[in-house]
Amino acid sequence: MFDLSRLGSPAVLRRVLAFDALSGAATAALHLLLAPTLSTWLGLPAGLLQASGMAIVAFVALAGWLALQALPPRAPLMAIVLLNLAWALACLWLAFGGAVSPTPLGLGYLLMQAVVVFLLAELQWTGWRGLARLPPRVLAA
Q: Around Cβ 79, how many Cβ atoms within 10 Å?
């Protein structure tokens, strides 16, 4: 059985950040390379998909860099947590806010993004709190 206390460990945090970076890179590639097709399928504006793809590229760079750190710095990690929360809320707003009219597939896509990104934010928040509990000598090393 998985020990839930390990969720706050730096090793688990780095894996979560790496997954976030890799899945973000795949999403960015989809949005940038297939925006016209996705726009038709999802009922989302192609410009929105392209702009979000470009934003995700910057996010991926930060998440990827943090994933490579033995002990990710807490301030940039908190930025990742907050950006993920903002992304999840934006997906919910797009799904239900009336600004766009997503297709049923688009609604599913937005809801899936909101749930997955929220879970990533929660795991990263747990890792952020875990870093605060590390002894100062570990952080100084």
A: 15
| Residue 131, C-beta contacts closer than 8 angstroms, at least 6 positions apart | 8, 10, 13, 71, 72, 74, 77, 139
Number of domains in the chain: 1
Q: What is the mean pLDDT of the chain?
A: 92
pTM equals 0.90
Structural domain includes residue 1: no
The burial of 132, by beta-carbon neighbours within 10 Å (0-12 exposed, 13-18 middle, 19 or more buried), is given as exposed
10 near 130, Cβ under 8 Å? yes
Is residue 59 exposed (0-12), middle (13-18) or buried (19+ Cβ within 10 Å)? buried
